[in-house]
Design a protein that fits this description.
The structure is a homotrimer. In chain A, about 30% of the residues lie in helices and about 20% in strands. By secondary structure, chain A is of the alpha/beta class. In chain A, the strands form five sheets. In chain A, strands 1-10-12-11-13-16-14-15 form an eight-stranded mixed sheet, sandwiched between helices. In chain A, strands 5-4-9-6 form a four-stranded antiparallel sheet.
Chain lengths: ~450, ~450, ~450
């Protein structure tokens, strides 16, 4: 199957180190749902894998939404009467509420207060806040610093621009040999937060890079875009492609110490869900499987009822699931190379299985065909069949057009790798034919 | 939701006391499947809620049945040679086998014996026996008294009439705002038996009375009629109405000390069954849920395969489930006000949920709609959503026309009250539309 | 129901003794997938039940297969230089690899070695090996004897014929009163192996013999044929019959000390599977139920995806499931009369239930029909119904055309015997009608 190397300890560890180096370089950049920070981040990714970029102009309608004006920041701070910067965007880009509109005024503490955000319980951490869709401004600061602000007056400067521009997303596409497609989506809109989601970007780059060296059955599309409005923009521009989408994953938060976690698609029994049940729940990954809920990352959009796609989510600790989440403590120290490496192995395994997965049609379905005369079966009878012969019999038995390899694995207890080899041997011998790759076979997802 | 007050401790206790008073007044009346006893009982109910009565003439065919002649009793007794009444209808109306035909004869003990019914194991209780559909007569008596009858001869008098007349049932109807309907059926045919089923009559009157002050979505029909032939008569006259029947309950035996018990409809997964699973099984009711079986009360008729309606049953101890069942010991002392109050709370909760339940269609199903610009969502992002925002997301996610609110509650773990409020807010905002209220939406029950 | 006597201890034990006697007479014969050994075996069976034989000529195509040349053996041995027979077919027919082609040569040990089969772990047992579909020859011997063979040279003689002829299978058919059919298939191709499968042959003969004295609803077809190519031949000649096949079993290995074991059909929920779940899993049989897998006996062919028939398998220890399997130790001593008797009882029970099973249509489905006026129900009401009345209500409730008696048994908890009597009474009273017996009712298997 695909990505054999990345499924192994050594190669995945090496890939994790490369990912760590990329994460370090991306970390200082101020990203948002639009703006040059995203473009500079994609420049760094492009050093590893080719990207096709899309710019969607401000004002473009996207379903119920509209692409907002583009946001860029030159400077932002709160200074005291002496001009001393008490809160400084250049010290940490989380200090500025993301998408703050321009301000340049002197104001009292009372006037400033409603625009300040801090965490009394975590006085040393800066929270992460955004105001994408309502014009406003604000500053996030350590609660300890907030208590020492003094009584003002304060000079408050947000030297940002909110101007017609565009939203940027990028794709790294690996063409497949059939009409089927698959997607891996990772969000790119978070500023200096490491686990959420520079790990997702770096792991997606690693997988896309490795897959380019192979010849998958499905066309795999690794998409780097902002949360919500980015996936909506991709969906709006790819609606005609969706009927061919066989599987998908949103990924992110892949470097922390928590266990792997798979969140099911809305339908709960899609091919992606069944792959996770087969491949991730058991050893060596022992991933937690959780039901769909309509809060989280971009799976919310892919699984909205108007699309209802076979898209699950792989993270380690999920949104809201670790104390450092959405604070300045989600920094480079939170990202563990061994966690990244395991995440890469798990994703490589999922991609390989989803790509190999297919429905197969037994072309000699009345009785068992003679495997012996085709060299597929030992010719002296009386003793039981070996593991591979067993897999041949299972594939023949279930190759009725309604079972895919994952369904065969679930029913037989055999691994998808073994069933893939057996199916390939039967296809080679003319005893079976892969389905689902031509429009005539019906493109829709196999359901059990 | 509807019937908020009756779902609370205080109001339900007050309603239970009113019900107890009604039960006391109904208790002495000799009821049967026809006759003036039923009419006098309905007079008492009508002091609390308006009723529309239907008289179905003797001889009218009702499916496989025919409305029998009407039965009324002036007097009935067994007297000894001295004229002393040994068994006297006026002492307890259970003494006479219900629907006994007229007799006036002197006979030996041997001749009398086959017409006597007693309970050797419960020598102080009078059993309840009927002979509706085979012309016969008989007396029920305490076994202790039977042993002291003496050797006769006996004067046996049943001064009853079996004459062309009619069967009586009555409805208290609360009109709803949609085309959907629901039914609550309680049987009225038992003579001096308190728990079975004066409690059902009194509780139905309490619920119907309270519901009249509200504006339900469904038209609720509280039907007071005799067992079997009464529900069959209602069904025969309302066949055109059945496709609009969204939910239903037969109720009775609601005052004893046993726990609440819900018996599923024949299909086992109707909206009524799902409501019971959501609302009655857990605290505070802790009701027992049992599968359908074709013995019991009028759910037998509603769930017969030619109708197969979404009608479950709520009782406390069921038929045959307590020693006093169908004997003179099922008297006023068996009815506990606190049991009645809890039964009222449970039924009010079921009625409210069944009435609120609806399928909802997301009118902006491609991606999530912008809740913020409609005032439905906090505008500063970065922190997780609150309980109500969560409910909005769940409703939007599952509002695909195949999930009703009960299905959403089962899947999300949120209460139907919260989901009802969220759905109403989305309907108000033009983001969703309630289904199932017009013929174009399809009137049939939602199945999961 | 059918086969009452054989379901009882005494009659089944008597039948087991008759079966044992037949097994003893069949044991010495050298059988294979073709040849006179099969015909002589069928001669012995025919002493107990009439058989219709079919001869399928060598060269006939059967799906992906072709009927091979017929194989018969006069003599076969390995002799030393002095002419002393070291391995002798006449001592045990397992010594010759089944379907060995003719040889008459003197050869060295080195040349002989690749043609020898023995079991180092079981040095006193002769293994059973075949080479039906690749021309070859070989000898099977005790490993102890193999080690004492000496260094040769050896005279090796296989005086066999592989010539155009035919494959033989036979059927004992008991005609039913409806268009439905059922099959019991047992393989006949094993030489001197007792449990596998002379027990299957003898038990099939016992059941066929007993059933001839009765009048079943289904036409029961007991088929005696070789493994794989035999069932394929039967299927090829009976394709038009398959849509009428309501149930089926492959049987064999019925005499060892292991517990009864039912292997589900490929679909897993066919009528045969549901009968086994109802009748075999519980006391007194306590049979193990196992899922279908595509290895085993002729159920492989009946359940291949092009047929996918409702055919399960009943054995005691399955193929490969006991140490003596496919060796000379599977001899007469392995067959226990008490095991055979229990197998006969279990099969008689399955046959009776499968034959009685039917879908029933309630002809008075709106409300309950009046059972009392038809003499089916006690006429004095007030007390609960008895067991038979309960069964009447269950049948009426579920007689919607989608439940068969087995489904009613599963749902009601009542025995299929009781439900069969209730259904018969309702059919008799004109309240219900059996379905599935005419083409207009649809011949396909009822699924729940």
């Amino acid at each position: 199957m695909l990505l054999d190397a990345l499924q192994r300890e050594a190669d995945s560890q090496e890939a994790a180190l490369v990912a760590c180096a990329l994460i370090e370089r991306m970390y200082p950049i101020c990203r948002s749902i639009t703006g040059d920070g995203v473009r500079r981040t994609l420049d760094l990714v492009e050093e590893q894998v080719p990207l096709a970029r899309t710019e969607v102009a401000s004002g473009t309608p996207v379903f119920d939404w509209v692409i907002p004006r583009e946001w860029n920041v030159r400077d932002a701070y709160i200074a005291d009467a002496c001009g001393r910067r008490l809160v400084d965007f250049h010290a940490h880009n989380l200090h500025l509420v993301n998408y703050s509109s321009p301000v340049d005024r002197t104001m009292s503490l009372a006037e400033l207060e409603p625009h300040l955000h801090s965490l009394p319980d975590r006085p040393d951490w800066i929270p992460y806040r955004t105001t994408y869709y309502r014009e406003n401004w604000g500053f996030c600061l350590r609660h300890r610093d907030r208590e020492a602000l003094g009584s003002g007056p304060f000079r408050v400067v947000v030297d940002s621009t909110l101007e017609p521009g565009s939203l940027t997303f990028a794709e790294s596409v690996v063409e497949g040999s059939t009409a089927g497609e698959a997607i891996v989506y990772t969000h790119t809109c978070h500023p200096s937060l490491a686990n959420d989601n520079l790990t997702g970007i770096a792991v997606a780059a690693a997988l896309a890079g490795a897959l380019r060296a192979e010849r998958p059955r499905l066309t795999w599309r690794f998409v780097f875009g902002p949360g919500t409005i980015g996936s909506l923009s991709w969906l709006a521009r790819n609606e005609q492609r969706l009927p061919r989408l066989r599987a998908g994953l949103t990924i992110g938060l892949l470097g922390d110490a928590g266990p792997l976690r798979y969140k099911r698609s809305r339908r709960g029994d899609t091919v992606t869900d069944r792959a996770a049940a087969q491949l991730l729940a058991a050893a060596p990954f022992g991933a937690l499987l959780t039901d769909f809920e309509p809060y989280g990352y971009d799976e919310r959009q892919f699984c909205s009822p108007g699309f209802d796609l076979p898209v699950g989510r792989i993270t380690r600790s999920p949104n809201g699931g670790y104390p450092e989440y959405h604070t300045s403590a989600d920094d480079l120290s939170l990202v563990r190379p061994e966690s990244l490496a395991e995440s890469i192995r798990a994703l490589a395994r999922m991609i390989a299985a989803l790509d190999a997965n297919r429905r197969v049609l037994n072309l000699s379905p009345k009785g068992e065909p003679r495997l012996g005369k085709r060299g597929l079966y030992g010719s002296v009878g009386g003793a039981g069949p070996g593991e591979f012969e067993h897999a041949l019999l299972w594939v023949l038995s279930l190759a009725d057009g309604s079972h895919d390899l994952l369904a065969m694995a679930a029913r037989s207890g055999l691994s998808i790798d073994l069933l893939d080899r057996a199916a390939a041997a039967l296809e080679q011998a003319g005893l079976a034919r892969a389905l689902g790759d031509s429009p005539a076979d019906g493109g829709e997802e196999t359901r059990q």
